[in-house]
């Protein structure tokens, strides 16, 4: 039966008697109005039921969550109690700042790595004068040569200004002539290079007249020339005439005049003479010339102190006498210290106006590049240097191929030891003319010469008078435009028997070029070039010279690298896929 109020049962609880007993029965107490959320918790958990009996016979059921239950985390309500707790607020902000700080640091670090990593700069394309070829033109015929020059693909032409006009380029007649020349070739997008002779002036030059008027003791004008007392003239000989290099100009004094009557040598390291030459360079660039070649560069500075010495006995030509120019060393008038610094200043004028779009060069072999060097640079962008032209001209001997390889390697080794004023490397001047062809034909010479590192420079008649076709030059120019030529490696080899010579041009990822030459005048050679590193086993012929007459070998023919057949005095160019 139901309990009465106040019997100790909690309000809202129902009691039922167990077994209907009055004293010994058990009473089960079941909570009926528990909080809803508590019931939900219990419904989701395993519980342990305990029956607890008392001395009066009552029993209570105790529902208890199992002590070994699995942890299930805190509820949202429980977590929200800590949402505004100062400790957790600070911790959350600390972690937030650390996360984004590390993220930004990694981002900035990646940018820095990209910025600071070693750069693989794109290869600098060759300038117009490095691409070449350059063709020498005749002052009296250049208008009729224009179309032919353009058809041969010349990037520039070289015009030789008469020596006596060097310091008269601002006169009306000379200026008009030069401007017409430039306009003519610019119409075909061909640049113009000029050769000048700046180491002397004529008797009509205002500076010479001023020096003559004021005499050898004038501190300005007189210093531009080399004066000597007529009573104590040194034994210097004239370059152009027989006899002394000095010409009397007063009763007591003479002036150095090495290059013929009415021409008086300038001391170009003296400020007044040097500034005179710089003015000429600026004027020529203003007219539109994009390159200047200097004649007689080794004579630009003279050491006015004593007699010349005779050539050492081993080098002396026994047929010469003391009256001959070649008998003496000419150490006082050629290759005098200071040439490098002088040319460095002159190159600064040219590149200051034209930057890398123009060049400064010379017209003769520099022979001693160390004399023209200045602070590790060679201020001559296209030097003429080495024995390559001589070796090809005088190749009628058994040791010709070995000597040619030796001289090619030595030439490039010497030139590559220097940088130019603009930071690049000197670009060799590969000059040849009809006199160079006394042994090899023009076709063979041209094909072998064109892919050497440098710029070919020749007269137009070298091609037109010797059967070198426009198609041949066009093909060679296409090869010169390839990455393997413009930016690739260069190496020269003899075949296994050292009877022929070849060189390669190769840039990684591009076909290589193989250029071979047989200098033997009568015997066909079967050359083995398999010793060239990375050459592969097979070559594809792409160009042959006029003398090449091997049966069954033509353009696109494949030949074995260990058996390259070469006709007497012939050349070929082939491509190859480098071996991995």
Keyphrases for this structure?
580 residues, alpha/beta, six-stranded antiparallel sheet, extended
The helix/strand class is alpha/beta
**Total beta strand runs:** 24
Main β-sheet description: 7 strands, parallel
In round numbers, the mean pLDDT is: 88
| Poorly predicted parts | 1-34
Tell me the number of helical segments per DSSP (H or I, 4 or more residues long): 16
Mind telling me the C-alpha Rg? 47 Å
Question: What strand line-up does the widest sheet have?
Answer: 14-13-7-6-5-16-15
Helix content: 25-40%
Strand fraction: 15-25%
Spatial shape: extended
How widely separated are the two ends?
A: 105 Å
Structure description:
By secondary structure, the chain is α/β, with parallel strands linked by helices. The chain has helices at 36-43, 76-80, 86-116, 128-131, 142-151, 172-186, 206-214, 271-287, 339-354, 369-372, 388-393, 400-415, 442-450, 460-464, 470-480, 483-486, and strands at 14-17, 27-30, 47-53, 59-65, 134-136, 156-160, 191-196, 200-202, 227-229, 246-248, 253-256, 263-265, 291-294, 359-362, 429-432, 455-459, 489-494, 501-506, 512-518, 525-527, 538-544, 558-560, 564-566, 570-576. The radius of gyration is 47 Å and the shape is extended. The longest helix is centred in the first third of the chain and has 31 residues, at 86-116. A hairpin with a 4-residue loop joins strand 10 (246-248) and strand 11 (253-256). It has 16 helices and 24 strands. The strands form seven sheets. It has a seven-stranded parallel sheet with strand order 14-13-7-6-5-16-15. A six-stranded antiparallel sheet has the order 17-18-19-24-21-22. Helix 8 (271-287) runs parallel beside helix 9 (339-354). Pfam families: SLC3A2_N. GO terms for molecular function: aromatic amino acid transmembrane transporter activity; L-alanine transmembrane transporter activity; L-leucine transmembrane transporter activity. One of its GO terms (cellular component) is apical plasma membrane. The chain crosses the membrane at residues 93-115. Keywords: Membrane, Signal, Transmembrane, Transmembrane helix.
């Amino acid at each position: 039966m139901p309990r009465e109020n106040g019997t100790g049962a909690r309000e809202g609880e129902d009691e039922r008697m167990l077994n209907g007993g009055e004293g010994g029965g058990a009473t089960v107490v079941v909570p009926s109005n528990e909080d809803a959320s508590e019931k939900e918790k219990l419904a989701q958990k395993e519980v342990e039921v305990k029956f607890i009996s008392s001395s009066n016979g009552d029993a209570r059921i105790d529902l208890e969550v199992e002590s070994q239950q699995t942890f299930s985390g805190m509820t949202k309500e429980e977590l929200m109690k800590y949402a505004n707790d100062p400790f957790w607020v600070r911790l959350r902000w600390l972690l937030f700042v650390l996360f984004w700080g590390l993220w930004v640091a990694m981002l900035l670090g990646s940018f820095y790595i990209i910025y600071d990593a070693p750069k693989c700069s794109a290869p600098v394309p060759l300038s117009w004068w490095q691409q070449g070829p350059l063709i020498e033109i005749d002052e009296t015929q250049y208008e009729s040569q224009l179309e032919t020059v353009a058809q041969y693909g010349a990037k520039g032409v070289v015009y030789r200004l008469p020596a006596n006009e060097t310091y008269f380029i601002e006169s009306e007649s000379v200026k008009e002539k030069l401007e017409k020349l430039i306009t003519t070739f610019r119409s075909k997008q061909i640049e113009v290079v000029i050769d000048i002779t700046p180491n002397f002036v004529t008797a009509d030059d205002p500076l010479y007249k001023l020096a003559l008027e004021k005499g050898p003791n004038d501190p300005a004008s007189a210093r531009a020339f080399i004066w000597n007392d007529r009573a104590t003239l040194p034994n210097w000989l004239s370059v152009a005439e027989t006899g002394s290099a000095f010409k009397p100009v007063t009763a007591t004094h003479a002036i150095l005049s090495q290059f013929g009557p009415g021409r008086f040598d300038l001391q170009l390291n003296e400020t007044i003479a040097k500034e005179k030459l710089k003015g000429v360079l600026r004027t020529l660039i203003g007219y539109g010339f994009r390159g200047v070649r200097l004649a007689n560069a080794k004579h630009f500075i003279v050491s006015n102190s004593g007699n010349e010495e005779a050539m050492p006995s081993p080098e002396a030509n026994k047929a010469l006498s003391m009256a001959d120019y070649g008998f003496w060393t000419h150490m006082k008038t050629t290759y005098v210290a200071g040439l490098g610094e002088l040319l460095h200043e002159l190159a600064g004028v040219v590149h200051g106006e034209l930057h890398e779009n123009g060049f400064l060069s010379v017209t003769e072999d520099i022979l001693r590049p160390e004399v023209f060097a200045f602070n590790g640079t060679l201020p001559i962008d296209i030097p003429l240097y080495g024995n390559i032209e001589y070796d090809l001209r005088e190749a009628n001997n058994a040791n010709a191929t070995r000597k040619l390889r030796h001289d090619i390697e030595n030439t490039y080794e010497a030139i590559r030891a220097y940088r130019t004023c603009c930071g690049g490397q000197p670009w060799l001047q590969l000059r040849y003319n009809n006199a160079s062809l006394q042994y090899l034909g023009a076709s063979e010479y041209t094909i072998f010469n064109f892919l050497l590192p440098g710029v070919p420079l020749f007269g137009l008649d070298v091609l037109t008078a010797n059967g070198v076709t426009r198609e041949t030059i066009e093909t060679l120019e296409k090869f010169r435009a390839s990455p393997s030529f413009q930016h690739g490696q260069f190496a020269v080899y003899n075949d296994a028997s050292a009877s022929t010579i070849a060189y390669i041009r190769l840039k990684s990822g591009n076909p290589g070029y193989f250029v071979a030459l047989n200098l033997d005048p009568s015997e066909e050679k079967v050359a083995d070039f398999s010793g060239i590193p990375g050459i592969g086993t097979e070559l594809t012929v792409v160009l042959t010279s006029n003398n090449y007459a091997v049966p069954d070998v033509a353009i696109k023919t494949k030949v074995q690298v260990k058996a390259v057949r070469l006709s007497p005095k012939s050349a070929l160019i082939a491509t190859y896929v480098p071996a991995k």
